[in-house]
Structures are given as C-alpha cells and as structure tokens.
Amino acid sequence: MKIAFIGLGNMGGGMAANLVKAGHEVRAFDLSAEAASRAQGNGCSVVPTVREAVQGTDAVVSMLPNGAIVESVYTAEVIGHAPTAALLLDCSTIDVATARKVEDAARAAGHEMVDAPVSGGIAAANGGTLTFMVGGSDAGFARAEPILAAMGKAVIHAGQAGAGQAAKICNNMILGATMIATCEAFALADKLGLNLQTFYDISSKASGQSWSMTSYCPVPGVGPQSPADNDYQGGFAAALMLKDLKLAMEAAASVGAKTPMGQRAEELYADYTAAGSGGSDFSGIIKTL
C-alpha cells in the first residue's frame, strides 16, 4: 500500500518506520530536516511538501503537534490533493471539536477519515506496540485497522468521529492524576521510613496498584526500567501531559463535567512545566515532592 506519513517527530518517526517494516511504501514529510533524514534512513521516501507526499496514495497518516496544525494541514494540503479514495488517519492528540470539524470536511470531499490517537509513548512507537483509540465510521475503522495494526498491539474502535480523541484525553487525565498520587505515596512512604522497594513490592500487589506504579515507577531503581532510571529523560514529556490535561479540562467545561482531580493535576503540571521542567518526563514531578 502507498502511504503518506506527515509528521516524523519522536512518535511519528518510529510509526512510519514500522509501516515500512510491514511492507508498505511510505512517502514521508516533516519540516525538520533531521527528522526527515532519520525517516529516510528507516526506508521512507522523503518528499519536500505535504502535497507531494499525498499524491497518488492509498492512505494518509499524520502525527502532528496540535489541532490548529492538523486543521491547516488537512484543509489546505491534504483534502483536494490526495486521491478521493485515500483513507485519512490522524493519530495526533487534539481537541474533539477540531477532530470532528476536520473529519466533516474530509467526508464532504469524499474521503473516509478516522481520528486515531495513541497511547504508549516513544518506546511503543518504535517497537510497534502502541494502543490506538479510533473514532470514525464502521467502514473507516475497517479500512484503518490493518494499517494501524502494523504500528500497534491494540486497535480499538471507540465510536464515531471524535470518539478516539475523547477516549485519549479521558485516559490521560487518569494517567496524570494517578502519577501524581503515586509520586505522593512514594514520597510519603520514604518520609515514614519505609524502604521504597519494599513499599513497591507491597503496593504493586495490593489495592494501590496502577500502571503508573508497576509499568512506569517514578522512583529510580524500583520496578521495571523507566525514565526515572535515566534522570527523567525520554518517555512522555511533562509539557505533553499538560497539553493533554488542558484538552481534558476544555472538554469537561464544554459538557459541564466535574473533574476536580483532573483540574488539580493540570495545575500541578502547569507549575512543573513553568519551572522549566516541561521537557523532562512527566514522572519527574516526584522531584517537587
């Protein structure tokens, strides 16, 4: 299959490489020459513009920083330039309203389009073990599933247009809040004189267990290897967690949902990033405790 891939950053670069490994012909574009060069080294054909990337393709996959860029790229560069039969898959994490707006524009032009944000981080993007939450029609999901499966371990149909984005921001609101609670518990355990490995051995098998603890422990040397073992570098940047929490709070406000824990998590990550730690892993917030 001929696939255009737009956005070759920390996540997109690995995803595009896995499409190549799956036997697809990938035509890639990114504004960063360094990212484009890495993609070329991974077997992608790099082109100078989005319009050139999408010409003659069977599908277009994007991984972009925010909703404004997604809307601009699709409405100005993809729709009207990619073949009408091309499936459009946006894997960015953006607000639900923009996702639906872009998908409406795509459908009006004759395209099937899905929103398919991901969970799993850079290691999963490189390893092809992402989880995709997909919003779109049944027909769109059926076409998207084999493409996404080449980049992930799980591809789940969340519902109609925008449902993938809704699932992603709700999931990451849980992640942000539970990571803070996990950090608080380890900090408290330490101050109470508990050995942190012993506390991990207990809580990881008790009711306090969570993904933030057993898969991504914020304490160096405890649990499986995580960014904590690399001075909180790599992984999922705190600035990106803050972005997702802001999206969740905007969505909550739009439907009148009460999210006090999510709101407090947003406030704490806003303080953390404002202090200059936006580029470090989000689990590094333990250092503020």
Specify the overall morphology: globular
Averaged pLDDT, please? 97
The tally of structural domains comes to: 2
| Biggest sheet layout | 6 strands, parallel
Work out the radius of gyration. 20 Å
**Uncertain parts:** none
Instruction: Give the CATH level 1 class of the largest domain.
Output: Alpha Beta
Order of helices and strands: EHEHEHEHEHEEHEHEHHHHH
Termini separation:
50 Å
At CATH level 3, the topology of the largest domain is: Rossmann fold
**How would you name the CATH homologous superfamily of the largest domain?**
NAD(P)-binding Rossmann-like Domain
| Portion in helices | 40-55%
Secondary structure: number of strands: 9
Tally of helical segments:
12
Structural class of the secondary structure composition?
alpha/beta
Trace the largest sheet across and list its strands.
3-2-1-4-5-6
CATH architecture of the largest domain: 3-Layer(aba) Sandwich
Beta-strand share of residues: 5-15%
